[in-house]
Predict the 3D structure of the following.
Amino acid sequence: MWLVIALALYRHQSISEVVDELDLALPARDASFVSKSAVAQARQRTGAAPLAWLFRESASNWVAQDPAQYQFKGFSLFALDGTTLRTADSAANRAHFGAPAGVHGRVGSYPQLRAVTLTAVCTHLVRDVEFGPYDINEMLSAGKLIPRVPENSFTVFDRGLLSAQILCNLVAGGQNRHFIIAAKSNTRWDVATGQPGDQMVRMRVSPQARKKCPGLPEFWQARAVLSVDARGRQRILLSSLTDRRHFKPADIVACYQRRWQIETSYHELKQSMLGMELTLRSQSVEGVYQEMWGALIAYNLIRLEMAKAALEAGRAPEDLSFIRAFHTTQYEMTWAAATRSYGKLPALLMRLRERLKQLPNEKRPGRTCARAVKSRPFRYTVRFLKKTLTERHYGLGPVFLHFDMFRSLPALLLVITRLRLRSARHISTAIIVEAISRRRSRLRIHRLRINRLIHRLCIDRLCVHRLRSRRSHQRANHRTAQQRADYRTAVSAATPVRGRLA
């Protein structure tokens, strides 16, 4: 079991490395090391049920510790939301968990499992969880968690979980269990009492919901409170806290604003602790469930130590840096495994807690320079080719066309098109067109019109050089000496074409 928990703490290491580094195998006289197959067989014998029992027992006890320090007006604050995790792309995982479906019959690249968690907002401890195949609706998983919500608590729901069945069962299934949830834009109700911004509203339960759950009433009531965020956006919060004297509208808004802590816990679990890995390790369905339970236990262990350290330091648990606490825990666990004297373990745990007290979240200073996107360095050196494109592919010089050979524009375009068809489709054709100024009046062709028509022929590479008179050529000061030398070389190597091209 310790191995499964450690796999989440050391996601960047292989299973055999974790076993050797933490010395998790029992010593044996006839063997100095543990084979990889033995570790895999031990995981299979353990299964996922012991890890699930350990998580539920430990989570319920850890969340209940120090209740007075984290309660809001005598109530515990929880958040309920869902998330997904990718699993290894094996046939067993894809058949069991499934994958998100796209348009035109496409499916996701990796199988995914869907999880719905009940998280303590103040400490980020995961109180309970339901996870399984991706196709299971979050409403069904949330309905399974409702009976296990502790009494004397507020539960902040995600807007997508707005359901009369879930909210009514929460209030009626225990003592002093209340909800706070944002209303959807299409939610309709009738105002019973109250003033704008703080009203009692009555909503009708849909016939479909009453058919699924016959115990639901025809109407259900809630308190609607107006909330305005920092950006000026308005939303209506529905709550079962109907006592206006004890719970002001500002109290309900403040509780709902802390709902984002559960999103932060998902980021800590999936990105920080699991090292932003693409998928989980396990290839089998039972291994995925086992690994998921171990990751939740490991996350709660880190969050519990952070809560204890923050309580001793007089801080809030979210004031400590999770990523730095996670790295500190990795280091101390490795050092504890290397210590053969078990009597020193309490001192090591005390040192861990003292180090956690010194890891506050530091506010980043403001930006001192403008944001800029820099070019990505190349892995290999760049080689510049100096030969022309036609010489590389054909070993010939560029084709030289004279305007005075053609009496009309269609004749010129016909020649260029034939040159294009004679070349391969993936090979560009380099054409040097000599535009003689004294012939341009007879052809009645403008230079810009030539360029536009040539670009319509879809020629990949086109070099259009205009030979000017000697006087105008001397006044072309924008060309460098190297460019003029390259130009003279290209013109001298060109082969004039007199007559029609086949």
